[in-house]
Design a protein that fits this description.
Blueprint lengths: L5 E6 L10 H9 L2 E6 L10 H4 L7 H26 L6 E6 L1 H12 L3 E7 L17 H5 L14 E6 L8 H15 L7 E6 L9 H17 L1
Parallel strand pairs: 1-2, 1-3, 3-4, 4-5, 5-6
Helix pairs in contact: 3-4
């Protein structure tokens, strides 16, 4: 969808599909970006019982499934970037909402060709909600983006969170940004690194939701234009 000088891989939230962000994809396309709305593994047209029978993501069993989805999605991104670059597009950004933002942050640690990262309502921390990591999740949690801050530098990043979000708590993003700032400051030509919190819970109402997207589009225009 769209045309222009840069592309955006766009990822949706948990239990949804790429069509849930059709309006936002059209906004991005209207701003001149080629938009690839991606159905995450087991979602949308790729729906499977992995999501259909998934427990609440707040539970440990649900978290196990979430980490499976995140790892599978992350590992697909290099092939998607190959596909986009093969079409003659020279800059590929990634953006996501909620689970899609988790994917965007994870993909950034695994695919250095991503030119910019936009995280809306995401977290870089894969640790279970209660802070305890059972033996079967130790390997996955060691791959958590919050443990790999150096892999984000020097690419432009925009991280938007809700200050009252209890579904995806903003604390881990604050910690990551604090770790990233000196790394970006020490790298000539790095950034920009932008972090903003909105006075909202996880389910963002208008007009704040539109404002998040206007902020995201202005950021992408600045760094990809």
């Amino acid at each position: 969808m769209g045309s222009g000088h840069g592309a955006v891989l766009l990822y949706h939230g948990l239990r949804m599909g790429s069509d849930s962000l059709e309006r936002e994809a059209r906004w991005l396309a209207g701003a001149g970006f080629t938009v690839f709305g991606v159905d995450a593994p087991h979602h949308g047209w790729r729906h499977s019982d992995v999501v259909g029978s998934m427990p609440d993501a707040m539970t440990l069993d649900g978290h196990r499934v979430l980490l499976r989805i995140l790892r599978e999605a992350r590992d697909e991104v290099p092939r998607l970037v190959d596909h986009v670059l093969a079409q003659g597009i020279t800059k590929v950004a990634i953006a996501g909402v909620s689970m899609g933002a988790f994917i965007a942050l994870a993909a950034a640690t695994a695919e250095p060709r991503l030119a910019a990262i936009v995280s809306l309502l995401g977290t870089p921390d894969w640790t279970p909600r209660d802070g305890d990591v059972p033996p079967d999740l130790v390997l996955a949690v060691t791959e958590s983006p919050h443990l790999q801050p150096e892999k984000f530098v020097p690419r432009p990043m925009l991280l938007l969170n809700g200050s009252r979000d209890d579904n995806v708590r903003p604390g881990p993003t604050r910690v990551l940004v604090a770790r990233l700032r000196p790394l970006y400051a020490a790298k000539p030509g790095a950034g920009p690194l932008i972090h903003r919190e909105y006075d909202t819970e996880h389910y963002v109402q208008e007009p704040l939701w539109a404002d998040m997207w206007m902020t995201s589009m202005a950021f992408l225009t600045r760094v990809l234009g």
